[in-house]
Amino acid sequence: MIYDTLLKKREADGNPVRVGMFGAGFMARGITNQIAHSVPGMVLSVICNRNLEKARRAYEEAGITDIAEVTSTAALADCIRAGRAAITSDPMLLCEVEGLDCLIDATGAIEYGASITLAAFKNGKSMVSMNAELDATVGPLLKRKADEAGVIFTGCDGDQPGVEMNLYRFVKSIGLTPLVCGNIKGLQDPYRNPTTQEGFAKQWGQDPYMVTSFADGTKISFEQAIVANATGMTVNKRGMIGRDHRGHIDELTQSYDVEELRKLGGIVDYTVGSKPGPGVFVLAAHDDPKQQHYLNLYKLGTGPLYSFYTPYHLCHFEVPLSVARLVLCQDAVIQPIAGPMVDVVATAKVDLAEGDVIDTLGGYKSYGQCETYAISREQRLLPMGLAEGCRLRRAVPKDTVLTYDDVEIPADRLIDQLRAEQDKTFPA
């Protein structure tokens, strides 16, 4: 963990890493509190949110009360130099101001996230993204645009994709070949909606639509698509395998066809109810009989698959460390390695009628499933990241995967332009 040492040096030198953040929701408030109290050598200089009172609340909950509302880059720059917390509703201020080392997208809003990410790149700023929805939709294109701008676009530690990637990198670094990257869930029901999830959301102070996206499989599909794009892995069936396995994750070493995994180049997957959860796992192979002997000695079994896992993911606790890795080590946590491998496709949650308009992610009308990018392109499947606001041209039965031909897409959206550019840039 070289970055904790480097952060302490920045603290000692009086030169903290200065961060700007978009969003002031549940996770963003946690990040604010974490940086304020547990990350020496880092300062959250400014929060941008359309509702300024929510931005103010994030700081105040962290015990920060000297807060300036700013409307110009000059005013924001003055706050950064003075070490005074700032809030604004203008996202361009964070992108254009001098003095910020990195930006965080903690919004989960696809259209908004696309615009601020491109503006950040244009102004030479790197982005740590908690916006899995955006990343899974156009991440490969954004990675290419970041490279062209000489900045870094990366997902974050704490969320499952970043934790999986850390584990994947570790497993590769000790000489094994990862063949399954997996996510451990407690619940999977594609028909959950904000009404069924309202009580849970209220209990934890979260948004019921966001909670629904966890329960109905949309979020895990976005997350595993990101992992696939970062590793070159794929899925061996639409929606992934998704076993209901109530035992220990180690038992899954006997559940996969290793030759199929090798042929595919590895797959992303998930389980429901496995222990220890809620964490992530990597199943990997080793071809050296001498090393297989050592792995057996070290209680990992006889193979051909060996189980590695992290029994937790700590979300906002680890996001500031992702910023430190980027700024101080130029090390991305997780990003696409080339073109897209796996897409997330929109699927009817209920019978949809002609004229219905698809609501937001985690809503009442649709859920997302993983599919190979090649099949998604060939069959003209509608990416989940484009589904919100689309109007049905015809009736579609429940559980049908939507296609571009089924819907009218809203006009003049940036995300549609980026997706078209990505599809042109990376042919299936």
From TrEMBL:
Can you give the residue ranges of the SAF domain? 343-408
Gene3D superfamilies assigned: NAD(P)-binding Rossmann-like Domain
Fetch the InterPro entries from UniProt: DRL_cat, NAD(P)-bd_dom_sf, SAF
Q: Which domain of life is it from?
A: Bacteria
Instruction: Quote the PANTHER family the UniProt record gives.
Output: SAF DOMAIN PROTEIN, STRU PROTEIN
The name of this protein is: NAD(P)H-dependent oxidoreductase
Query: What is the organism of origin for this protein?
Result: Teichococcus globiformis
